[in-house]
Amino acid sequence: MSFLMNGPRRSPSVSTLGSASGNALTTPWRSFLTLIGVFFFWGFVAASNDILIPVFKQALNLEQAQSQMISFAFYVAYTLGSLLYLGASALWSGPGHDDLISRWGYSKALSYGLLISAVGTLLFIPAADQASFPLLLAGLMVVGLGFSLQQTVANPLVLLMGPAAGGSQRLSMAGGINNLGTTLGPLLVSYAIFGPMGGEGSTANASSAVMDLSAVKTPYMVLGALFTLAALVFYFKDLGRPTSSGSAKGVSDEGKRVFALPQVWGGMIAIFLYVGVEVATASNLPEYLRAELNLPVESFAPYVALFWASLMIGRWTGTAAMVQQGILGLSTAASRTLMRLVLPTAAFAVYMLVTALGGHDPFEHLAFLPALVVLVGADAISGGKAERQLALYAGLGMVSLVVGMLAPPQVGVYALTAVGLFCSTLWPCIFDLSLRGVGSATTKVSSALIMMIMGGGFVSVLQGYLADTPSVGIRGSFWVGVFCFAYLAFYALVLGKPRNTATAS
């Protein structure tokens, strides 16, 4: 049974979930594995958007920039949700509580977020039946509002559920579950719209399938039911709550000091641009497939799924040390090397399996394997250190985008999908660096970071606008991502290094 305690080297004003073993904090695996289940939902919906974009673009004759409003509505909802949360916390947190999460507790806050997302899925019924773009955007926005609250709770809680040194690895493991959802999402939504063998055997029916959007609602109705079920599970669970500082003025003063730290405000910009490059690359990939490879929309799913699967591959690789020591109980260098090879191979095998089950040829994408070799080497060089990994992976992301723009499309498409490998662990690295030493301001900083997920909407629309510009085109539009990665490397090397913290003595 898990219980709350204050772990070593943590602020005494922040409660952490875990169990004590001597002087160390260990991960409560049952609670941890239950928690990271919600990461699957986030990934499924986010990646499914990349199928909805070309489908609605073709069905409603949208421009590329217009189609990116799907990403915009979904990701801007995170910002709106964070603002609503901060405002509601100021008004209704109650005496003795710094914010709503400290009043409700982690479990009930997760439950409420899941129920909000479930309400959003209901809008997919009229949106699909009426082929209504505004209703689709509204549904995605409400789902995103719920996700905003869920992420505000879940991300810092994952960091707190165990030793501080393993925080980014636990987030990587949670991210691996997230990317199982991102791998399945495009394939299942594509299957729902086009049926089996959509990319290889039903081209004749593709046009009518695309225009009949009623099939879109089915996977989202299933998701809504799962959201509701998960909400019930978490409502009756106890994951603890952050402890109150006991002084509203103290919290206010500490918050001001915290948000003045370069690691925090720089981290907010980093989250904006990281989510931006990840979402913009994925959501503009279908247009690259159409324009450069002349593929029909029903053939996009395996490539979109490969991009998101690459994030799963990267995150599974990033958890090698955690799996080796924390789960398998191994401690040798040989076993760590083995895990670095086994985990990405297993993740790629999952992609191959779900692609085959979706009616597509998985062996068509074996050309992606050299990118895995680069990933394994990069993971070994980084040594699991957040600053080093962020800088190295940002550099490799820039290289992948440049190759994607300059190489022949048969090669470029795999360079673009490989961007996911090098985005894979950037979220936990940025989150880890941003939250180091922020004390009782952890929840507020987390909410501010979640707010910056809106970068996924703004950057994708910017890239879509550039793609519509004849002098730039879809190839040249990926320079947007290069500039995003350049800032992330700068953050890792300069701004992200912790200096004075709010709780420093």
Could you characterize what this model shows?
The protein has 505 residues and is mainly α. The protein has one domain (25-495): Growth Hormone, Chain: A (Up-down Bundle). It has 24 helices and 3 strands. It has helices spanning 29-35, 37-60, 64-67, 69-92, 100-104, 106-122, 124-129, 133-160, 167-194, 203-211, 217-235, 248-259, 262-293, 301-318, 320-327, 333-357, 369-382, 386-406, 409-423, 426-435, 442-451, 455-468, 473-476, 479-495, and strands at 3-5, 16-21, 24-26. Strands 1-2-3 form a 3-stranded antiparallel beta sheet, with no helix packed on it. A hairpin with a 2-residue loop joins strand 2 and strand 3. Helix 13 packs antiparallel against helix 19 and helix 16 packs antiparallel against helix 17 (369-382). The chain starts with a strand and ends in a 10-residue tail after the last helix.
CATH architecture: Up-down Bundle
* The CATH C-level class name: Mainly Alpha
What's the gyration radius in Å?
Answer: 22 Å
Q: Helicity level, as a percent range?
A: over 70%
> What is the approximate shape?
globular
Ranges with pLDDT <50 over ≥5 residues? 1-24, 197-210, 246-251, 500-505
- Helical/strand content category: mainly alpha
Order of helices and strands: EEEHHHHHHHHHHHHHHHHHHHHHHHH
Whole-number average pLDDT? 78
Ends distance = 34 Å
Determine the number of helices (DSSP H or I, runs of at least 4 residues).
Answer: 24
Tally the structural domains: 1
Largest sheet: 3 strands, antiparallel
CATH H level, superfamily name: MFS general substrate transporter like domains
